[in-house]
Amino acid sequence: MKSIRSISKIFLKVFLSIIIAVSFAHAQSEQAFTPEVGQAGKDVVWVPTPQALVDKMLDMAKVTPKDYIIDLGSGDGRIVITAAKRGVRAHGIEYNPNMVALAKRNAAKEGVSDKGTFAEADIFESDFSQATVITMFLLPDLNIRLRPKILSLKPGTRIVSNTFNMQEWEADETATAQDDCTDYCTAYLWIVPANVGGTWKLSEGELTLEQSFQMITGTLRSGKVSTPVTGKLNGNQIRFTADGTLYVGLVNGNSMNGNMQVGSNDKWSATRMQQ
Ligand SMILES: C[S@@+](CC[C@H](N)C(=O)[O-])C[C@H]1O[C@@H](n2cnc3c(N)ncnc32)[C@H](O)[C@@H]1O
Fold first, then answer.
1. Could you tell me which residues come within 8 angstroms of residue 6 by beta carbon, excluding any fewer than 6 positions away?
2. Is pLDDT above 70 for 162?
3. Which residue, by CA, sits nearest to atom 14 of ligand 1?
4. What average pLDDT does this structure show over 116-136?
């Protein structure tokens, strides 16, 4: 009986020692991980966005607590954490598990683990359709790979990229961080445009619009008279000029309406007949 008890005690001691050793080793390995600028990543290396540009990027996107930000390739979590400290829900998607663990620890240290969350995942296999703001610091070819998915996001979604652009999709705004920012200090902002391409019935005639990202060209045909149209989208807000009249309005799927701002003050509305 006595020997069974002492064997159990020994077994318990060994078991506890193993648990303590494993937990200690785990804690040590977490503490030991220090990221290195330029370290390999799945599709792009890790280089952190300078804090002055993180602030600028969030300012450009005009983030508010109503937003939900997703940082594609979130590194040490600085964009997510800065947003969370502004009271905005933010989420980072990062492939490297050590960086995810580091970002989570950084968020906890700043007391924002509730608003700033992180997932270990591949951005090319992730759903980011719920975001109202996307931030990224990737590479030109990765931006282009992501572009179709980005353009299918809800009109008005803001995209902010550190340094790298979207080729022929011109930025709506460009800004450079000053302060002590020395490298990677320029950011671009795009606003996902509504889809307006096609033929619309407007009281003034038939409006045919061609869309290249946020830019619009086309014609307004009334009887035998055809006048050129040029305009621009800002999310679902549309402005175009036809025959000296400026039309300003909102797009909602296959209908749009608003007020004429120059040439007349009348209201206008249009319905899409063909896409
Ligand atoms: C240039 S860093 C930017 C980090 C952070 N967004 C910032 O601005 O400070 C790019 C990050 O993307 C991560 N990454 C690379 N390819 C990825 C992929 N396919 N899916 C998710 N993360 C990826 C890298 O590990 C790296 O942390």
1. none
2. yes
3. 73
4. 98
Give the nearest ligand 1 atom to 92 CA: 6
User: Cβ(71) to ligand 1 under 6 A?
Assistant: yes
DSSP string, 37-75: TT---SSS---PPPHHHHHHHHHHTT--TT-EEEEES-T
Closest atom of ligand 1 relative to the 122 alpha carbon: 20
Q: Decide whether any atom of ligand 1 lies within 6 Å of the 44 Cβ.
A: yes
pLDDT reading at 23 higher than 60: no
**Letter for the amino acid at 166?**
M
Single pTM value for the model: 0.89
C-alpha triplet 155, 160, 162: angle, nearest 5°: 160
The answer, yes or no, to whether any atom of ligand 1 lies below 6 A from the CB of 139, is no
